[in-house]
Amino acid sequence: MVFSISSNVFRYLVFFDDGYLQYVLHENIRLVCESSKNVWEDVHPESKTFIKDYLTRYPERPMVKLNIDEIVKTEWNGKWWVARVQDIDASLVKMYFDADERTEWIYRGSTRLGPLYIEMIAARDRQTGRNHRHASILKRQNPYVEYTQNIDESNSDDDVELVKESSEQAQQPARSVARKSTNQKQNKKPDTVYHRVGPVDITVKPKQYVQQNHPGAIAKVSLSKAPKPRPFTAHSCNNSCVAWTDYRFEKSREIPLFYTRKSKPFVVYIGPCGRRMRSHNEIVDYLFRTQSELSCDYFDFDPWVSCVNEYRLPKQMVNSSIKDLSYGKEHVSIECVNYVDCTYPDFVYYQTERRAMDNVFLNTDPEFLSGCNCTDNCRDRSKCSCWQLTITGAKCIPGLDFDENDIGYQYRRLPERVVSGIYECNSQCKCSKTCMNRVVQFPISVKLQLYKTLMKGWGIRCLHDIPQGSFICIYAGNLLTEQAANEGGKTYGDEYLAELDFIEVIENLKDDYESDVPESSEDEDSSSSKNKDQFDVDQFYPDQILIKINENKTKDTDSDDESDSKKTRKPVQFNANIKEEEKKVHKSVREYYGDDECIYIMDAKNGGNIGRYMNHSCNPNVFVQNVFVDTHDLRFPWVAFFASRFIEAGQELTWDYNYDVGSVPGKALHCYCGEANCRRRLL
Predict the structure, then answer these.
(1) Are 303 and 266 in contact (CB under 8 A)?
(2) Structural domains of the chain, ranges and CATH numbers in brackets
(3) In what order do the strands lie in the sheet with 478-480?
(4) Where is this region: Disordered (predicted)?
(5) What is d(CA 544, CA 537) in angstroms, rounded to the nearest whole number?
(6) pTM above 0.85, yes or no
(7) Does residue 226 or residue 474 have the better pLDDT?
(8) Of 316-320, 388-392, 636-640, the least confident
(9) In angstroms, rounded to a whole number, what is the distance separating the alpha carbons of residues 638 and 602?
């Protein structure tokens, strides 16, 4: 049972032998006279495994975080059914099954709930070294699995700590290191991966999230003086409109201000020749006509994005600092500050590109790339072969219905992730560097700062506002084989390992298409339409349980007039009873590269860029995108970070590590992101 605390209104949660649960008050609890040393040996065989796992992991309990009216795939009688959350009572959830209009109270820590079942399967497959076809696309967004401690909320903050690796493991499975996934985990169906962003009220600023460990302040920075636009006269714009300006921009954020940005409450840019531009389309046309070297992503039409806001720390608060962590290798300097203690980050060879190590055959010969012949900066997607590679890849995802103009970059920004990958223009293309399909291949232009956090080690914050969809940086490191990554991870640590699992994610999307909609025969539908308390006795299992309900205890009973009625309750299991079937409908693409091909790993432990310091969050403001730039080999995409929403100056940049909790036995990491939807555990 679960003891009473304030969160469950001081009731005990009792697990019955037949798979049912109930909250009971203290006065209704009775002591057990005698029990086995291992109490799970005293319960029903079908409940033994669940009780054993529960007591072994106690007080930590993985629970599915649910909300009223959410749709959750739920197991019943060996099948997955569509069920709706009708009510929530502490650790219990009341599920309504649409198929037979039946309701049932289920423990939120039961694998009968789809999100927790997926989590369990992923962790199990990782432990056994099996290359699991990720459920990352179908996995949590809402609902999700959180790892709770069975303690009072008032004391929860004091009890959260890192769990050290235990040596008391009976077996050492193949998987002994943790690796981040370079694919986003979300609970969206494939047909909702892409959508057109509708009109929004630009006078309303996006919701800002609570910033922790934030001792600095936002300052309005005065920029160096730049030439003012000329008075506008009717003309056809050409290169002479901007050729007279020889001003050198010291910082990228000054560029749009040269075009006299006005925002009350909408944004208008005025070019050097006096022409006004009110949309990104007009900006692109102007830059193309004037043959400007600027790209359209320098300009933004959201009034809440400020070009003069800069996050600053008081100098007296900084205990130690480094002027440029990249030592001149980045386009902009990356400052490192520490106001928590006097330590510096460990030395790491700073590299802006990935490097292939032993037994990793990365072919970047440009002759193996296809290129486009565009002369219009690839504005016409239908004529650009690189754009068509991205669009064709998206069409391979089953169930998608989208406009081709919504796929990929929108004015060199990425509003949402393209699961099937992005193919950028490359050295074989005839387009210019200001092409609309060239983003990730350029150096960092966002001003970043490395800083020491209180609980999460080193982290990254932005010093200026970042619009939604902006490119931030890539994740650079050393490319390793899976074997080398496992050996190095056990010896030197696995905190900077990231899987290049692009192939597995795409194949999983195809294999699991519409797997959330269970197919049942007419016989199954008719049998399941009955209420679970109204089945015929002959249809029950031999170990059925008879429940006697005394309707009137004040009356005497005899053989002729019974006041006790009997109704039957079919035993259920605490965990899902799904028979897994190994179905391999096609040969994996990775197998075509060789019999022993495995996922390659990006390791930024000893060498990497600023992306290695980006921390985890359960509600991240950055997402990961696979991009193909110098090779079209599906095994080696670039790992790029983009802003998933507007990020205000001073906020920490975070992404979801997508660890499979429990995948490394004896090792656990708790989450300190502090978000409302925090899962409380990373690994």
Answers:
(1) yes
(2) 11-129 (2.30.30.140), 182-200+315-508+597-655 (2.170.270.10), 222-307 (no CATH)
(3) 180-181, 497-500, 600-603, 478-480, 355-356
(4) 154-193, 513-534, 551-574
(5) 9
(6) no
(7) 474
(8) 316-320
(9) 10
